[in-house]
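Structure first, sequence second, as always.
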């Protein structure tokens, strides 16, 4: 009887426990040596990738790239359709920043889809949200993939299954940045058209000093420079605009790969002159900024609009079908009646109070797993307090709780003492300028799965059984 890939790897680990444990310890030590870290904390992992077959990989690739197109369409529609623009509540600062034309087509260039994929079910993909502001983790994925492919355990696995060569996400990222920059240069007429393809920008990767991703940025910098693209890593306080050019310290910058969250950028502009200089240079069209500031439109509120059909008249039949199949029931938390998941019309407040075990609530603009509350895990009194806050602030969404997939992972509790434990998993495909660019697979014993909350990473490998 043929074993599926996960069961086959499990049998290898069970039969060769001591060797597998040594392999796992080697991977962990390499994670430390290669500085695959969040801040100073090494990324956690388990000695089992998430295996998908070709059909599931096609699903991930197709759905994520189509969602990319839908979300970029929504940004475009904001500027052409009053009914779309009216769905967004923006303050005066946000409106002014969103009005700035970025100079390239896909204004959300870098996106990560946060989703669940049930094991052994090719049609189970559910998208909870999309990180369109400043998604990270891609260099960590590249490093974890390499470490696992070097593993003796995985090499044994490859005697029966072929693993497709993983996509190098940094390569797709660089292609996306260069493509958008060439569009920017052409639209701004900065370089003669015949020279555009050969022109390489100086790139600055910019985040606040509080970032925990410096090592990730350095890996991206080294990769870009190995491809002949001058790249620096820096902080906003070192940016300076002279009215024509933006500089990081004394180096002229052509493209800023923005890793500052837009919300934090707005909050820090008055405190950090360099951020104000960045915005002035961006507004003047003298620096290319990716992602554009228009991505602030694409917070969790957009999923409410997609879920309840408010945007349907602007979507194709295929896009509507896709949204209905992968986006869970989502609504803005506002007073009044709404259609609940079972199709009935009910009072929103009463529904949220009575059916908390079916629901998840979260602020529209938060990130990193912050302030995500799963109803069945929250005490009644606390839930009511959260609802009061949500109705008052008017920037929260409620989503139908989706059962979180669990996969089995080996746990080496003491030397040669092996057990297998089921752990929560989510799958987050990257899409860079419309192209699938690998997936971040996060694992956690908590239902809110996030690296910044102590989760880990395992590879996603596309596998095919070898003919015997």
């Amino acid at each position: 009887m043929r074993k599926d890939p996960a069961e086959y790897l499990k049998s290898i680990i069970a039969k060769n426990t001591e060797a597998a444990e040594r392999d796992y310890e080697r991977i962990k030590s390499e994670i430390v040596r290669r500085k695959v870290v969040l801040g100073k904390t090494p990324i956690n992992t388990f000695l089992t990738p998430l295996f998908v077959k070709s059909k599931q990989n096609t699903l991930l690739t197709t759905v994520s790239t189509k969602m990319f197109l839908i979300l970029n369409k929504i940004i475009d529609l904001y500027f052409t359709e009053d009914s779309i623009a009216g769905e967004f509540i923006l303050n005066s600062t946000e409106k002014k920043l969103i009005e700035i034309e970025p100079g390239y087509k896909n204004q959300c260039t870098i996106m990560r889809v946060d989703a669940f994929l049930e094991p052994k079910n090719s049609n189970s993909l559910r998208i909870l949200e999309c990180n369109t502001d400043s998604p990270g983790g891609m260099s960590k994925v590249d490093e974890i993939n390499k470490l696992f492919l070097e593993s003796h355990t995985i090499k044994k696995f490859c005697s029966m299954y072929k693993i497709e060569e993983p996509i190098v996400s940094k390569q797709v990222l660089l292609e996306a940045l260069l493509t958008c920059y060439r569009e920017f240069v052409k639209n701004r007429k900065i370089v003669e058209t015949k020279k555009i393809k050969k022109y390489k920008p100086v790139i600055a990767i910019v985040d606040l000093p509080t970032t925990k991703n410096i090592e990730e940025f350095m890996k991206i910098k080294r990769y870009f420079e190995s491809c002949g693209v001058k790249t620096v890593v820096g902080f906003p306080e070192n940016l300076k605009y002279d009215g024509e050019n933006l500089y990081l310290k004394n180096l002229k910058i052509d493209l800023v790969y923005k890793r500052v969250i837009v919300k934090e950028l707005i909050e820090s502009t008055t405190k950090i002159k360099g951020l104000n200089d960045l915005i002035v240079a961006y507004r003047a069209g003298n620096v290319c900024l990716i992602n554009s500031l228009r991505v602030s439109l694409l917070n969790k509120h957009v999923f409410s609009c997609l879920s309840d059909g408010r945007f349907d008249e602007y979507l194709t039949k295929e896009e509507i079908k896709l949204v209905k199949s992968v986006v869970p029931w989502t609504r803005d938390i506002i007073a009044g009646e709404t259609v609940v998941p079972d199709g009935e019309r009910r009072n929103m407040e009463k529904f949220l109070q009575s059916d908390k075990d079916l629901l998840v609530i979260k602020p529209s603009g938060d990130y990193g797993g912050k302030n995500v509350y799963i109803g069945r895990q929250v005490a009644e009194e606390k839930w009511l307090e959260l609802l009061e806050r949500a109705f008052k602030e008017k920037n929260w969404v409620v989503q139908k709780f989706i059962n979180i997939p669990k996969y089995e992972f080996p746990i080496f509790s003491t030397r040669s003492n092996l057990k297998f434990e089921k752990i929560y998993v989510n799958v987050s495909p990257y899409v860079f300028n419309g192209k699938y660019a690998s997936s971040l697979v996060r694992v956690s014993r908590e239902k809110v799965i996030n690296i910044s909350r102590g989760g880990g990473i395992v590879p996603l490998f596309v596998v095919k059984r070898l003919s015997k």
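Margin note: The chain is about 35% helix and 25% strand.
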